[in-house]
Amino acid sequence: MISDIDCMRLAMPSGRQDPQRNPGLKRKAWLAVFLGSTLFWVVVALLVWKFWG
Fold first, then answer.
1. For the CA atoms of the chain, what is the radius of gyration?
2. Which whole-number Å values give the CA distances from 33 to 17, 23, 24, 36, 40, in the listed order?
C-alpha cells in the first residue's frame, strides 16, 4: 500500500520542475469549451423556440 507520505511525494515533487505544457493542447481545450458552450445554448434556444414559439 502507498502511505500518505508517498502520496505527497508523488503529488508534489521536491525538485523545482516547471510543468511541460503543450500550447496546441491548451488551444484544443479552449476550443472544446467554446464549442460545448455554443452547442448548449443552441439546444436551449431551440427548446425555447419549440415551446414558446
1. 22
2. 28, 15, 14, 5, 11
Q: Does residue 30 carry a pLDDT above 80?
A: yes
pLDDT at position 16 over 80:
no
If phi > 0 it is left, if psi is from -120 to 50 it is alpha, else beta; for residue 20 that is beta
Contact partners, residue 2, CB within 8 Å, separation at least 6: 10
Name every residue whose Cβ is closer than 8 Å to that of residue 10 and which is 6 or more positions away in sequence. 2
| Longest CA–CA separation in the chain, Å | 61
What pLDDT was estimated at residue 23?
86
pLDDT score of 52 more than 70: yes
Which residue bears the cell 520542475? 17
